[in-house]
UniProtKB/TrEMBL annotation:
Residues 18-203 form the START domain. InterPro entries: START-like_dom_sf (IPR023393), START_dom_prot (IPR028347), START_lipid-bd_dom (IPR002913), START_lipid_transfer (IPR051213). Residues 1-20 form the signal peptide. SUPFAM superfamilies: Bet v1-like. Keywords: Signal. This is START domain-containing protein. It comes from Pseudomonas triclosanedens.
Length: 208
C-alpha cells in the first residue's frame, strides 16, 4: 500500500476539505480521547461518521499498521478477515469480511484504496467500495456503497492527528438501533484500538 501520487476517493475523488465543509457534523460522543461526529446524508437512511483522535506515534508507524492487512484487521472494528486482491502503483483492492453483531446478517465488501502524501508530511488514504470487482460470496451480503478517508496529520514529534471518516449503505436490512450504534462504535473502537497498538509499537521501537 505504498503512497501513490494521485487520486481517488473512497469517497469519490472529492477533496477531503470540500467534503468536510459540505457536511454539518454534530458531536455524538467523546470518550478516551476520541471524538465521534455524525452527519445526516441526504437521501440515505444512514448517517456518516467522523472520528478524530491524537496518537503518540508518527505518520510512518500508523501507515505501516494500515498496510499490514493482518494487523489492521485486528484493530479495525467488526473485521473478521482482510486480504489483498490486487496491487498497482495507483491503488490496491482489498476484500474485507465482517463480523457484525446479531441480528445483522454477515456482510463483505471490496475496497479500492489509494494513498496520497500531503505537503506537511502527512497522508490521506481514500477508500471506495467496488462491489462488482469479484463475484458475490455465498452467505454474505455485499456492501453496495461505501466511501471515506483516513487522514494522518503530523502535529509534532511522534504525534499525529488521525481522522477517520466514512459514509456507507450496508445493503439489505439493518435495524435502526444497530445502524445508529455502529456509526458511533465503529470510529470509537477503531481509533481507540489503533492508538493503543501504535503507541505500544513506538515504545517498543529501538532507540525510543
Amino acid at each position: 500500500m505504498k503512497p501513490a501520487p494521485f487520486l481517488l476517493s473512497l469517497l469519490l475523488s472529492i477533496p477531503t476539505g470540500a467534503l468536510a465543509q459540505s457536511e454539518e457534523w454534530q458531536l455524538a460522543k467523546e470518550e478516551d480521547g476520541v471524538r465521534v461526529y455524525l452527519s445526516h446524508v441526504p437521501g440515505s437512511r444512514y448517517k456518516s461518521f467522523r472520528g478524530v483522535t491524537l496518537v503518540k506515534a508518527d505518520v510512518s508507524t500508523l501507515g505501516h499498521l494500515q498496510e499490514n492487512l493482518r494487523v489492521s484487521c485486528a484493530w479495525l472494528y467488526a473485521c473478521a478477515q482482510m486480504r489483498l486482491l490486487k496491487y498497482t502503483d495507483e491503488a490496491i483492492w482489498v476484500y474485507l469480511d465482517t463480523k457484525l453483531p446479531w441480528p445483522a446478517a454477515p456482510r463483505d465488501l471490496v475496497l479500492q484504496v489509494s494513498t496520497e502524501e500531503t505537503p506537511d508530511g502527512g497522508m490521506i488514504r481514500r477508500l471506495q467500495a467496488a462491489p462488482d470487482y469479484i463475484p458475490p460470496v455465498e452467505g454474505r451480503i455485499r456492501v453496495p456503497m461505501l466511501s471515506g478517508t483516513w487522514q494522518l496529520v503530523p502535529k509534532g514529534p511522534k504525534l499525529t492527528e488521525v481522522i477517520y471518516q466514512m459514509r456507507a449503505d450496508p445493503g439489505g436490512s439493518v435495524p435502526s438501533w444497530l445502524a445508529n450504534q455502529f456509526v458511533v462504535d465503529a470510529p470509537l473502537v477503531t481509533l481507540r484500538t489503533l492508538r493503543v497498538v501504535a503507541e505500544h509499537q513506538e515504545i517498543q521501537a529501538p532507540g525510543y
